Amino acid sequence: MAEESPDSAYHSNGSSLEEEAERMEDEEQERLLSYWQSVGRGHQVDVPRDMAEPIQQLTRNNNPQGRQTIPFTLIQRKEKLGDLLYEKRQYEKAKWACIKMKEKQYEQSICLGFMKLMRYICEQNSSGLYLGITIPIVTIVHTNESQSEMTQSVTVAYYLPEVLQDEPPHPFDSDIIIEEWPSTIVYSRSFRGITNEDSIMREINLLAEILESPELCLQDTFIIAGYTNPAAANRHNEIWFLQRP
């Protein structure tokens, strides 16, 4: 019986290691996809199989050190008995990747919009590169004039990292539009938990009561800033009021 040469043993062992690594990679991808599909069902959203790779890539890169926070200038902090009521901030002119959604429920719109932006961030763009996470991901919402209910139309937006601001990669998805937003002053208040029509309207009314001059802000347009992904249970969010230009 012929002995196996060291070279053939090396190649055989190398191949089996590669196969094992590939198998583990596939299992991890399936586990993450299954988790997101489970969360999606809770929001009445189907997470398609082609999201498996973007989900895995985003999960691997989703560490606090790798996230870029959108820069702003703090103008004022309003406190009461040691509790922060709100912050007044200035955000400079910047480019954002935006997608308009109009699902039956707010949760469906932000989940589906976020998945489309994930594909853009995860190499489905003209650079072919992973673009990096910036926080928060924001959603522009609109209400009727009396601020008693939200409209269905929302815009989910991703701030382009500083290094991409001058020349943002083009999205492959034609629904994603690169917009330049003007310099804006916002009044921001934090809140935790799920974001839906009821919780958003509650936070809008609460901040309107706290502000000394809410009439200085837009009365029908607000921003929900999300610092954790829509799959998280106890999300960190902010409600932003936009000062009139």
UniProtKB/TrEMBL annotation:
UniProt-annotated stretches for the region Disordered: 1-30
Protein name from the UniProt record: HEBP1 protein
Organism this protein belongs to: Pelecanoides urinatrix
Gene: Hebp1_0
Source lineage: Eukaryota, Metazoa, Chordata, Craniata, Vertebrata
GO MF terms, alphabetically ordered: heme binding
InterPro entries, A to Z: Reg_factor_effector_dom_sf (IPR011256), SOUL_heme-bd (IPR006917)
Highest taxon listed in the record's lineage: Eukaryota
Composition-biased stretches (Acidic residues): 17-29
Family: Belongs to the HEBP family.
